[in-house]
Amino acid sequence: MxxxxxxxxxxxDFSEWYNELLWRxxxxxxxxxxxxxxxxxxxxxxxxxxxxxxxRELLDRDHQxxxxxxxxPEQEFMKEAEHIKGFENEVYLVTHGGTTPLDVKLAxxxxxxxxxxxxxxxxxxxxxxxxxxxxxxxxTFRYETKQTRPLIRLREITSFMESHTVHATWDEAEAQVExxxxxxxxxxxxxxxxxxxxxxxxxxxxxxxxxxxxxDAIMPNGKTLQIGTVxxxxxxxxxxxxxxxxxxxxxxxxxxxTCYGISERCIAALLSMHGDDKGLILPPVAAPVQVVIVPxxxxxxxxxxxxxAQNLQQALTAxxxxxxxxxxDMRPGxxxxxxxxxxxxxxxxxxxxxxxxxxxxxxxxxxxxxxxxLATAPDGVTRVLAEITDAIRTKAEEHTRSHxxxxxxxxxxxxxxxxxxxxxxxxxxxxxxGDAIEEKTTASVLGTDVRSPYVHDxxxxxxxxxxxxxxxxxGRTY
Length: 478
Ligand code: A5A
Ligand code: ZN
Hints:
Translation Initiation Factor IF3; Rossmann fold; five-stranded mixed beta sheet; binds '5'-O-(N-(L-alanyl)-sulfamoyl)adenosine; 14 helices; single chain; binds zinc ion; alpha+beta
């Protein structure tokens, strides 16, 4: 995998660019012989480690991590009516143990409500046991019928973070939903991924939820990707699974619940949002290699330069940076290409002349050069990495802002969508008007109650019927 493969497809040809990048930057191998299942290359898995490390850190503030079984008895799975309706066509069933047909068929979890909640029913006894907030990061299986794509639509979701909380009252669960939205936004903000948050229309909520708040990112081609969802489950599941607690007066009450999920789509968004025609661009927080040192050792001073490069690596590593010294016997240009493709935020070029000037040339993956004093290199690198993060964030924000626009007529909406934009319209929240929008545009009503620095949650006349409506996001989705 090097220059010989020719140039990467341009990012404007997003699908080809994405697929080729996953291969060349060694993120996923798509050759596994089961549809919708993919293999993490070690480099991709290293990115995953940093991204999910961050997610764990955020969750560990007030959740505890747990691990439930993969297999769910079919009859547990079949208890909650809406949940079944939503998932029955997507569930893989284990029917045999060896050659013996199973008395109780076992579902591979598509999500774990029906694995976790029967246990919650045993664990929750009194108000003193609440709130209960657990999460797990596991694989889940969904027999998806839409086109599968690596990191985006999987039949085995390998990195499903699901949180499941239990509360005394509906209002407390609602407060938890708000908290989790905040947490999701903080997570994505750390990855420099701008998001729009909105309340999904009723027909698109999670099966078994009172309501669903979704977090979307606008991908390079203007399609939206749902990169997280928070669900208020009300008493739907607590009634089905009998999750009850004794309140302070000694009365038995049904608990209220939330659940919340993020998958490796977060990595799809990370790679897609920031990359360019040369390859990945990783924000330093998510980069397995944050700094690569390339020694330029043409001529006689090979030894001097190598010693200085090693010292530099040591100083930076001791400060806590993830640093690679690329001493391979390759042309410097080929090394630049290699690390640019893999999204390393900062390259330090060190040659004899730099050494004499006691400086090192710093080349940002976001496209600027600057010089850093060798004597205070850790400070210099700290500063430059922060500038790189800012540049990545600013570019992503500009992309998102420029892909949002308002539309007040159906024709304007249609042409905005055809230009690859996400539109803000006013909608009265009637199903019939929502259907009209979706039929006319082949796009989706993403949601109302929009929270985004780029969109005002305003009132206006419904784009279909003219009755009072609310700001609503409309987009073509993955
Ligand atoms: N139990 C709740 C959390 C749940 O399952 N919610 S969910 O169905 O909405 O999934 C959570 C998130 O997982 C979605 O918002 C989406 O970002 C991601 N996701 C869902 N199906 C996926 C698939 N087939 N491949 C990759 N990610 C998926
Ligand atoms: Zn209407």
